[in-house]
Design goal:
With 146 residues, the chain is an alpha+beta fold. 43% of the residues lie in helices and 20% in strands. The protein is built from 4 helices and 4 strands, in the order H-E-E-E-H-E-H-H. It has a 4-stranded antiparallel β-sheet with strand order 1-2-3-4. Strand 2 and strand 3 form a beta hairpin. Helix 1 packs across helix 2, helix 2 runs parallel beside helix 4 and helix 3 packs antiparallel against helix 4. It is globular. The relative contact order is 0.19.
Amino acid sequence: MSTKNLDQLYRSVIMDHYKNPRNKGVLKENNVTVDMNNPTCGDVIHLTLQVEDGIVKDAKFEGEGCSISMASASMMTQIIKNKDIDSAVKYAHLFSDMMLGKEIDDSVDLGDIEALSGVAKFPARIKCATLGWKAMEKGIGTDSDN
């Protein structure tokens, strides 16, 4: 597939998640709630997680922001659901590496989040893309700021 076609496919995936977000809302039975914002651009996320026995049983988000931040949060909730905490954190680290333009393990299926790989070319947008992921890490107590 040509680079132009791949870029178009990735834009389509991002816009689909932005216009039709997965896991949008608030979990009634949650045990983790995190509110974060990106003061640089005004993106805001409210993340609720249901974590039981070390497994992220469910994840939902609400928020306002650009297409990158909201699509990334949608993709993040999809990929961490029913994963153990270590796996969720592994995906967060892989995503962070991808945002920094680092090589990532090709054997890991990133699903739709691979569509955000182009964000690495735009440093001002990286905080938008990582907002939901940082909220998840903070919520499960693994962020480096704790």
